[in-house]
# Entry
Amino acid sequence: MKAKTYLILFLLLLVTTSMKKHNPAYTLFDQKGKEVTYQDLIKAASEAEIVLFGELHNNPISHWLQYELTCDLHELHGQQLILAAEMFEADNQLLLDEYISGTIRQRNFEDEAKLWNNYETDYKPLVEFARENKLTFVAGNIPRRYAAIVHQRGFEGLNELPDEAKKFIAPLPVAYDPELPGYKSMLEMMSGMGTGPASENLPKAQAVKDATMAYFILKNLKPGTVLIHYHGTYHSNNYEGIYWYLKKQNPDLKILTIASVEQEEIDSLTSENSALADFTICVPTTMTKTH
# Structure
């Protein structure tokens, strides 16, 4: 009898120890905060026209799931899948096209394109996937020099650009709603740090990025295609940013949003991180960074 009791205690200890060692890399939640599976995400994404994948730029789980979801969507949609990203500026589209088509070498592309510091680990796998499968990859962001103009002089500064430059920006004038919570909170944050045009124009610089990315998404989206767009999660959290501009142009679009957050505990979402998107990837704050 004692041996049986000791066996039961040993097994309980073993189970408890195993549970403590089980540290999931992420938890996935739906819009209502219910824990769901990756298969639920694939099913929902497969039914969308546009997937807005919001990432934490230095989080490896965000980048890994971007790659996995892209592969799975490609299995479902084949050549109808289009990739697009904040990380490539619109004036680099020719370079990106030339590399994906095999016209230029990898070295030339990487030397001449304005690549982010974490390109090698985080975005190169996506570019190489597009190249291997001959998929369209859209460079969707406004060139940073033009976003800087908005930061300095507001939207009006863009009117001084030549027509050739305006091809890389959403059509002017850019719609802007300063009452959107994301832009409003950005302005409030900046007002606490100082005053002046640069502070007041920061949300406008964010908005012109969102508007431009939405513009190039719609420009490349064709009937029957599915487009997955990679960007910082702030650009689509709370169904604002890129999402707002897309819906303003076409309210009937089927858009799926994905947010990424970090928390100390990932068994449930905090109130701050609830209802950010259709799906939220919750990652431990202790997760290693890519840069």
Observations:
- Strands lie at 27-30, 35-36, 50-55, 81-89, 137-141, 226-232, 255-263, 279-284.
